[in-house]
Design a protein that fits this description.
The protein has 198 residues and is mainly alpha-helical. It contains ten helices and no strands. Helix 4 packs across helix 6 and helix 5 packs antiparallel against helix 10. The longest helix has 25 residues. The model has no long low-confidence stretch (mean pLDDT 89).
Length: 198
């Protein structure tokens, strides 16, 4: 068991180093050499745990998604025993926004991965679809709960997708525009007023 824990700890240290390298210099900066130097390990160690650059990039992307998932779980845990669908969707959206230094860095990294998925070759567009699809599903579930059994499924899914896509635009806007960052909570509430009350 200690050996497994050591391996997982080493993998986390390497993906943590890759996150820092990518946040500073983009995917091009994330080489075996630069990540090894950042992690304080040998190049052979990085190659041992992640055989190719693509493997350690995708592991790094998963690590960012897992961090975001942990923030999301914490936010939902604070809602109490009987949150409304609006409460749940609002908590999800706010947990996904870059509202503190860690989530800001993660948003930068996810933006870099998104851009890389457009051009390849290390990351393909399908590599980054899992988390957004999951969020759409969770939001759609809350919209169904809010609207009842008569809710039109096409409209529910379209509204969930609009919420996610709007959130993605807001998150990217917050990285370069302090005004959006200052008004993020108000903008989320406005979005929910428009979509949930429609």
């Amino acid at each position: 068991m200690p050996r497994l824990a050591d391996h997982e700890e080493r993998r986390r240290a390497i993906t943590g180093a890759a996150r820092r390298v990518i946040a500073r210099g983009g995917l091009e900066a994330a080489t075996f050499q630069s990540v090894a130097a950042e992690a304080g390990v040998s190049v052979r160690s990085v190659q041992y745990y992640f055989g190719t650059k693509r493997e350690f990039l995708l592991a790094t992307h998963r690590a960012v998604v897992e961090s975001t998932g942990a923030r999301l779980a914490e936010a939902l845990a604070t809602l109490g025993t009987a949150p409304t669908p609006r409460d749940i969707v609002r908590a999800i959206l706010l947990a996904l926004l870059p509202l503190d230094p860690q989530s800001r860095r993660d948003a930068v990294i996810l933006g870099i991965f998104h851009a890389a998925a457009l051009t390849g070759p290390d990351v393909e567009s399908g590599d980054t679809h899992g988390a957004p699809n999951y969020i759409v599903g969770v939001v759609a579930e809350q919209l169904r709960a809010l609207r009842g059994a008569a809710a039109d499924e096409v409209t529910v899914l379209a509204d969930a997708e609009i919420i996610l896509l709007t959130l993605g635009g807001l998150a990217q806007g917050m990285l370069t525009n302090d005004d959006y960052a200052a008004r993020a909570t108000d903008l989320v509430d406005h979005l929910l007023d428009r979509v949930l009350d429609a």
